[in-house]
Amino acid sequence: MDEFGMGSANVHSHFGPVLNPAGPVGIDQSLAVSAEEQRVAGGSSGGSAAAVAAGLCDVALASDTGGSTRLPASYCGILGFKPSYGLLSRHGLVAYASSLDTVGIMAREVEPLRRAFVSASAYDSKDPTSAPTFARTRADEVHLALRERLAGREGAGVRERPLQGVRIGVPADIFPTSLLSSSSVLDPIRTFLRTLVSLGASLSSVRLPSAPLGLSAYYVLASAEASSNLARYDGVQFGHRAEEKVGEKEQLYARTRTEGFGKEVRKRLLLGTFALSADAFDNYYLQAQRVRRLIQLELDDLFRSPSPLATPAPPAAQRHDGVDFILHPSAMSTAPLLASCSPAASGSTSTSPASPADTEPASRSAYVQDLLSLPASLAGLPALSIPAGRSTDDGWPVGVTLVGQWGADSEVLEVAQRVEAARAVEQQ
Could you give a single Gene Ontology term from the biological process aspect (predicted)? Predict the structure, then answer.
């Protein structure tokens, strides 16, 4: 995985980049091609994604702060699930950004993923962010009507069209221009949407006007929380300790942290420390929190089910308008070429600095890859990346993400299972 979960391509690892085994020519051939043709597995949990895609395991745990489960799942052509914030215990997980960190699950099929989620979803007193039992119970009550629709209890013919009555919103306004202009990536997504319609789901266009601001807000908030969480790695109680020499203790701390953290981690810690400084706190950190709240409110306003976390407790009755789920592409493109990552990003130990022309475009694109996955992360909502097919251009996997209201995790997985069953029949 990327060091401390900081990365979107899994090239910021002490052990080198993770290679994507999900190429169009099969696992063995995908790993045997030249270095110039290798593709990244995605990050930060690319190791888990590659292990699942290669068939080394049925289910793998991952972590998801801003898309670290869903992005590699999309690149590797598997399922990647970020549950509702607080449903899975984070006890034992090294903290990156405490208000965003979520334990994720990866698998090739929905059923083993669902079993893993059900087994792990329980309140844990050792995790201060674990959702209490009353919140879980309230979520069950709020989503009862949706569960009944998915169970086929509303009228004749529903079992033949198992998603009859389910509304899915497509926020086309957050689709980047580069994706809209790529028919090779859009074609599998259109096919996936047609499958949903054939199962009885209704599609509608929705808008998330504040979502593009989420990228900047996320990197301010996540970096600020990382600055606080990783301050413990000072060489006294945690982590690497630099060789002691005569001098001030501040010099020992600085040398220890410079030696112990990789380049990408140091960059984000510096950004986070600046965002929390007295001069920048109001202009950056507080503004980012306001953007986060805007995105949360916009998403809540789209869903037919009210948020179970609302205060006072929301009514059990659903709204007449609104959607049950939101669906959008998981990533901006198929898995990028490993060669497109800069030497600095890939952890090169070369002492010759790369030119800005070589490093800047790759660096920017790595951060922009998180754009589509961030709204669900900032709002703490369940999101599942589902394989939609393969690009007609390069043959690599394309994924779509299904997002539900907080606590509708089982319902998200149920929709994916119905789609999986329908596509299995089509392929027979």
Answer: glutaminyl-tRNAGln biosynthesis via transamidation
